[in-house]
Amino acid sequence: MFETLSIGKTALLLCISSESEEEVIRETSILNGCKVLKGRVGSMDSAKIFAAIETAAKKEGLIKDLYREEHSLYHTVLEAYSGVCRGQVGLGDILRTAGLTFSVVRGPRFPGDDTDGEWIAVALYGNIGAPIKGYEHEVMGFGINPI
């Protein structure tokens, strides 16, 4: 189904996939030399969203406890988060909350091409809005950076 997926497409598809689709994407990604993870986070606090993604990435072995790897992940999450918040990075202070699914993918940008080193991609998908049921709408954000 998915013979070749860049890490960007992998992150985006994984983030919005159903469980059956997720398994195919994971298998394809591993064959292409990538590490992947998918998780969920919800909060009115931006810091909690960043921390959840970083913690999951460390726990699953996608990044090491090295400054350059943490720094790359941070900027990748910030880029994706900026898309979710439409450039206005903030939640709780302006009475917004988010419920998000996230995916993190690490590997070569394109399958079979490791001449460019390793990259990391983050996709966020979910809902954002006032902390009142029914006052939210769908959002998606994406970021990619070299490690």
TrEMBL record:
Keywords: Activator, Plasmid, RNA-binding, Transcription, Transcription regulation. Pfam families: HutP (PF09021). GO terms for molecular function: RNA binding. It comes from the Bacteria. Belongs to the HutP family. Antiterminator that binds to cis-acting regulatory sequences on the mRNA in the presence of histidine, thereby suppressing transcription termination and activating the hut operon for histidine utilization. Homohexamer. This is Hut operon positive regulatory protein. It comes from Peptoclostridium acidaminophilum DSM 3953. The lineage of its organism: Bacteria, Bacillati, Bacillota, Clostridia, Peptostreptococcales. The gene is hutP.
